[in-house]
Amino acid sequence: MDTSERLVESLERLGVERVFGYPGGRVIELFDELPESNIELVRPRDEREASVMAEMHGRLTGTPGVLAGQGPWIGSLGLIGQMEARLASSPMVAITDASERGNYSTIAPYQQSRGDYGGLELPKILDAVTKEHWFPRTPTETIRSLQLAFKHAVAGRPGPTAVILDGDAITEEYPDDVIPPVWDEETQTRTWKAAPSPRDVASAVEALEGANRPVIISGNGVHAAGAYDELQDAAEAYDAAVVTSYLGKSTFPETHRLAGGVIGSFGHEGANQLVSEADVLLVVGCRMNPMDTNWQAPEFIRPDEQTIIHADIDPRNAGWVYPADVGLIGDAAESLRELVASGSADNDWAEDRAKAARESFTAPECESDATPILPQRAVKEIERVVDEDTIVTADSGNNRFWLLNYLQVPAVQTYYGSGGVGGMGWATPAAVSAALATDKHVIGVAGDGGFAMTMTSVETAVEHGVAPTFVVLNDTSLGMVRQMQHGPDDISGVEFHDTDFTRVAEAFGAVGVRAETPDELADALSDAKGRDLPTVIDVRIDREQDMAETLQSSFYASVGGLHE
């Protein structure tokens, strides 16, 4: 058995259903074996899109998404998805190569990535992004490295790992007997969940039971742990209002009686006020980055006045930004389960206060019939077709913040956004990946700038027989940056040529629809949901609706506004 054949056999044993990638270099050895396996190859138009698809697969399923491709391109184009995976805690494994050329390696053939004089050093590039990477030099090291890559992708805080194939390590025959032995995949990749100590749980329970105004801040760690039921149980056990971070949106149904919305610089004013009024804060799986904390506006979170319980898988994160009174170190589901089993409380504050906070999900503009379509109204039309069997993927830029504020999701796992590293162009390939991984209807939302970056993913959807709806909120500009201008033409590079995305869609074999009125958008969304082909809806929105001015929180304004 060749090592490449054994590598694919390992992938099958690890339960991999599809690989996202682009053939090239030594990875061709892997691609050569895939047709004889049960693994589906998803080959988009470049490694950037493949990397986002792999990242979204990991984020959505909790099992590593597999990215495969030649070293120089996995270390450049393919870094987009890996960066998002690192900061958004998505399990992912990249299988790549050093593109080495044997005896020629020391005299610098092109694309050489082994690190020799005159070439690139792929291990150093990936070291800056991945949790761990391996550079096996023998067949047995290759298989063992792959197993460890899958183990470390999900162990502790999930993230991306990589295996860099090199010459003989992928082309030689795989030996029958090896020392040290290579164990079977199930044994080698087994992991265990960490749980908080009983003493810390008892301290947290005491604080929550004594609270008059308890609030839970739910972050992306709840997604990563799949701790949705545990979060709802904890909220109901302690009668606590629940708000989420940007990446934590859809960890809790936003229609629930205790839901308060999304916090942050461009989050809900009601949710931010809830956090400010709390006497006890339970932070679950949230790093509390500057956007989450309104850039640490002094009146937002006040450790000297509020009791802070911080639950996180990584002990470095608990109390990283704000001093924590109690740290619950472990898997989010385990921590929440322990809290529910150990105590309960009620109050007269949380339900009524959360109900008032949810008023931030609406605004008069959401019902406007104006043309061009107001982005607030566009989001409400999207909301009307979102149910518990729908997934919305959101890009970076203005579109993400309109969605965060006005899309009130009815269930968990219905919204995912580009908010780890926050790269544009994420939503479209992410939507394709979500459609491949589930039977749900998927809506990818992007601005015209972000959509154009990765619109060839529409062709991938057509090729693989999935039918996401792609909504392009089109203001023919780089809207968020354009609105940062202090005067006309103050910032160069913000205007785009008016591309006809309906014709682009048709060229890829999809359906293209242009929507210029709210009714046209409503009809287009409804029709797309029942269609067997992908649909691109080119939505002409009012470019004068200023996102930052409209959505900036009062707390964020108090520290001076934009810190981008």
TrEMBL record:
Residues 395-539 form the Thiamine pyrophosphate enzyme TPP-binding domain. The keyword Transit peptide does not apply. Residues 202-339 form the Thiamine pyrophosphate enzyme central domain. It holds the Pfam family TPP_enzyme_M. GO terms for molecular function: acetolactate synthase activity; flavin adenine dinucleotide binding; magnesium ion binding; thiamine pyrophosphate binding. Residues 1-105 form the Thiamine pyrophosphate enzyme N-terminal TPP-binding domain. Keywords: Thiamine pyrophosphate. One of its GO terms (cellular component) is acetolactate synthase complex. CDD domains: TPP_enzymes, TPP_PYR_POX_like. GO terms for biological process: isoleucine biosynthetic process; L-valine biosynthetic process; sulfur compound biosynthetic process. Belongs to the TPP enzyme family. PANTHER family: ACETOLACTATE SYNTHASE CATALYTIC SUBUNIT, MITOCHONDRIAL, THIAMINE PYROPHOSPHATE ENZYMES. This is Thiamine pyrophosphate-binding protein. It comes from Haloferax marinum.
